[in-house]
Hints:
The structure holds 2 protein chains of 2 kinds.
Chain A: E1 2-7, E2 10-15, H1 22-28, E3 48-51, E4 54-57, E5 70-72, H2 85-93, H3 102-115, H4 121-128, H5 138-148
Parallel strand pairs in A: 1-5
Antiparallel strand pairs in A: 1-2, 3-4, 3-5
Helix pairs in contact in A: 2-5
Chain B: H1 7-18, H2 32-39, E1 42-48, E2 72-78, E3 84-88, H3 97-109, E4 116-120, H4 137-164, E5 171-174, E6 177-180, E7 186-188, H5 189-193, E8 197-201, H6 226-230, E9 246-250, E10 259-264, E11 275-279, E12 282-287, H7 290-299, E13 301-305, H8 315-320, E14 335-338, H9 341-347, E15 350-358, E16 370-376, E17 379-384, H10 389-399, E18 407-410, H11 425-437, E19 441-444, H12 447-453, E20 460-468, E21 474-482, E22 497-503, H13 519-536, H14 541-547, H15 552-565, E23 576-585, E24 588-598, E25 605-615, H16 622-641, E26 647-648, E27 651-652, E28 670-676, H17 694-706, E29 712-713
Parallel strand pairs in B: 1-8, 3-4, 9-19, 15-29, 17-18, 21-22, 25-28
Antiparallel strand pairs in B: 1-2, 2-3, 5-6, 6-7, 9-12, 10-13, 11-12, 14-22, 15-20, 16-17, 16-19, 20-21, 23-24, 24-25, 26-27
Helix pairs in contact in B: 3-4, 13-14, 13-17, 16-17
Amino acid sequence: MPVTLLVNGSVHTVDAAADETLLSVLRGKLDLTGTKYGCGEGQCGACTVLLGDKPIRSCRTPLSSVAGKPITTIEGLEQNGRLHPVQEAFLKVEAFECGYCTSGMILSAVALLAKNPVPGEREIQEFMNGNICRCCTYPRIVDAVRLAAGRGKEQTR
Amino acid sequence: MSVPSGAARAFDLENAEQSSTPKLHDAFQLQRREFFKVLGGGLLVGMCVSSLAQESGRKPGGESEDDLPKSLSAWLHVAEDGKVTVYTGKVEVGQNIRTSLSQQVAEELRVPVNSIAMVMGDTALTPFDMGTFGSRTTPIMGTRLRAVAATAREALLGLAAEHWQVSRDSLAADNGVITDSHSKQTISYGELTRGQQLVSLVPDAPPLEPAKDWHIAGTPAAKVDGRAFVTGQHKYTPDMTRPGMLVGKVVRPSAFRASPISVDGGEAGKIPGVTLIHDGDFVGLTAPDEAAAEKALKAVRAEWKAPAQSSAATLFADLRKPTSEAGETYGMDPTHTQGSVEQALAGADKTLAQTYTVAYIAHAPLEPRAAVAEWNGGKLTVWTGTQRPFAVRDDLANTFRLPIENVRVIVPDTGSAYGGKHIGDAAVEAARLARTAGKPVKLMWTREEEFTWAYFRPAGVIDVKSGVSKEGKIVAWQFDNYNSGPSAIGTPYEIANQKIQFHGSDAPLRQGSYRGLAATANHFARETHMDELAHLCGMEPLEFRLKNLNDPRLVAVFHAAAEKFGWGREKSSPTRGFGIAGGTEKGSYIATCAEVEIDPASREVSVKRMVAAFECGAIVNPDGLRNQIMGSVIQGLGGAMFEAITFDNGKITNPHFAEYRMPRFADVPQLEIVMIDRKDLPPAGAGETPIVGTAPAVGNAIFAASGIRLRSMPLVPDGLPKTS
C-alpha cells in the first residue's frame, strides 16, 4: 500500500503495510539509519523522532498514524551544513560514549527545548527519563541540554 | 602480594574464560611488497610484540597477546602525501580509544591528532589482537603505538638529515614538518617519504616521550569522529546495507538447551521471498525486508523439547554445589594461602563470618548483537560488533570449515559492549543464513533475544570469615568465592593470615565477561565486610581501612575521595547515610563515597551524591577518562541497586527493559570525580575499575542510615527491607 511520508521536509511515497512501524520504514526503506532500534517496546528512546515538535517512539508508531505529518529525524536537524544547537552542545560537552543513544537523546532534547527553552535540571531529568544511555553519560547529557538552552556552562575538559 | 590481582593476571583469566578457540596459528609475517601494493609508497613501521613484553610487566612464556614472537602487533604508515594511518586490532566500543590512541601516536610522531586515521578491528587489514578487554588497550596497545610512532619519527629525522646532509642534532620534528635549526629549512613528512618504500622495525628500547613532557597526550581531546555521532551518520553494524541484502531471523527455542521436535513453516512460506532454513538445532529464515521477516517469524510453528532446569529461587544453593567437572578454575591455582587462618581465627579477639551474594545481570548494550554476512565464492566477510574480531574469525572458519584466510571480520565502531560482545553468535547465525540464501544477510537480535541468548555477568556466593585484634588489626581473612570469578579476589589490606579461594560451579545460565569481571562482586563482599569489621571494632570505617592498609596508591585515593566528599563532617541519620569503599584492580585505584537518602514511608532508597577518586597512572585523555569514570560509577548503580536477571526452568522471566530496571536520568546522583594524574607512572586502563566501588559504598551508606546490613546485590530492588 503506498503511504506518503513527510520526512525532514521531503515527501516520500513508500510501499508498506499500514501497520509497519515508522522505525522499520525509516531504516529499511528510506535509509535513514540515524534512528536506532533499541528495544522495540518504547522503553529506551533510541528510536525517538519528532512528529511536529513532539517526540515519538518510532518503534511503536504505525506508519498509517503519521502519514502526511511532518517528521524530523536526526538527519534533518543539520541545516545547510550547520549543526542544530543541541547537536553542537552534545559535541562540545561530548555527551556520549558509544553514541548509539545519541540520536534519540538529541531529538528528545530538541523537543524539550521547543516546549520550554530554559528547562531546569529536574525538568530535563524528568523529560528525558524515557531515554536510556547504557554508558551512563547522563550528567553530560544534562550539561549539554543546559548548554543548548544557553544556561549551562561548558564542562571543563 | 602474590594473590591474583594486577592487570596481567586478570587479562589471562579473562582470556582463559573466553577463549574457546585454539591458539593462533597464523602469526603475521611482514610481506614488504604486499604492504606497499596495498598502502602505496612511503614509510612503514612495524613492531614485533616480543620486544615490549617486559615493559608491560609480563614474563616471557605462556600464551598471550604479548608473546607471539614472530607476529607484528601494530604498524603505522606515513604515506607519500604525509597522511598517517595506524593499524590496530583493537576495537572502539565507546571507551574512546580511537581518540586516546591517536593522541599517543600524535604525541610521538609530532603530528596533529586529526592527521591520523586509525584502522581498527579488521582481520584482513590489522595485525592480530587477542581482543579489546581487560583494560589492556591503554597500557599495552598505547605503549606499542607510541613505540611505533617514535620509531617513525626517528626514521623521518634520519631521512631529513640524509636529505640535507646535515647532523640530526640540529633537526626538530613538529606538526608533521622537520626543521633544521641552523639553516631554517623545512621539509614535510610527505615530501620525505615520496617515492620511498621504507620499512622500519621498532628497536628494543625506542625513545619514548616521558608523560611529564607530553603536550598532545595528557591533554583533553575531543572524540576524533564525534560529529558523525551527533548527526546520525556513523554506521553501526545494524545500519549497514549490502547490494541484494536480505534480513535474517532466528527461530529461538522455547527454553535453554531445547532442541526442535518439529518445525512447520506454515504461512511463512507463502510470503514472497521468504526462505526457511533448518539445520540441526538451528532454525532461521531470510526475507526481503524487516516487515516480511517479522511476519514470517510469527508464522513459523516450531515445537521444542527442553530438559527440566533450575530456577533463580535455588540459585545460590546451586552455586555452592561441587562442579561436575574439575575445570572452571581457568587454569589458575585457585587457592592463595599464607600463614594459618585457622590458628589466627582461634587467637583473634573478635571474629566475623558472613555471606554475600550477587545476582546475574545483563550487559544490555543499546546496540544489540548484529551481523551482516556476505559470501563471495568460498570467501566470507562479516561485519559485526565484537570485542574479539580475530576469535570470531576463527569461530567462523571452524564452523564453516574454511581456511582462516578466507574469512574476514570487520568491526564497525560499536554501540557498546561492557564485556558482553566477546563471542560471535550473531556472526555465525548471519553467515549460516547467508550461505543458504546466496545473498548478503543482516541479522539484528531483538531486545528480548539480547536479554535471553547473550551471556550474563556470573552470579556468585562469597563467604568471608575474619578475625581482628582489639587494636583493630585484621589478623585472619578467609574468602571463598563460588562462581562469580577470581578477579580482584585478593585483599589489598595487610593481613598476615589469609586463605583465598575461587570455586567454580555448574552455572545454570550462560555466563562470561562483564565490565570489571568479578572485581565488582569481590569488592562488594570485601568492602562490605570491612565496614562490618569496623563497626564490630567500634572504629570509624575509613580509619579502620587505613589502619590495615599500606598501599600508598590506595591510601591516596581514599584520602582524595574523603576530602572531596567531606567525609566525617556530618553524622548519618535514619534518613541519610554516608558510606565509603575502595580498592584496586588492573593497575588502577578507586575510592568511592556515597550519600543515600531513605524515605521512611515508602522505604525507597535514593543515592543523592557520590564522589569517586581514581588513579590510573599517567592520564592520556583527561576528558575521555572523566567520561569513563562517570559512566562506570553510574552503570555500577544498576547492579548495586536494582538490576537482576530472573529465570525459571530454562527461561529468562524479565527479558525486557520494562522488567529489567537500569539506571536512568532520575537515578543519577550528584557526582564528583577526582582524578589523580601520576605522570611518573605508566598509564593503566580505566574503563572497568571505577565500577567496583559503587555497590559497597552505597550498601555501607544504607547501613549507616538504617542499621540494616544488606549483603546481596542488588541491594534494594524492592526498596529497603525491614531487616538484614
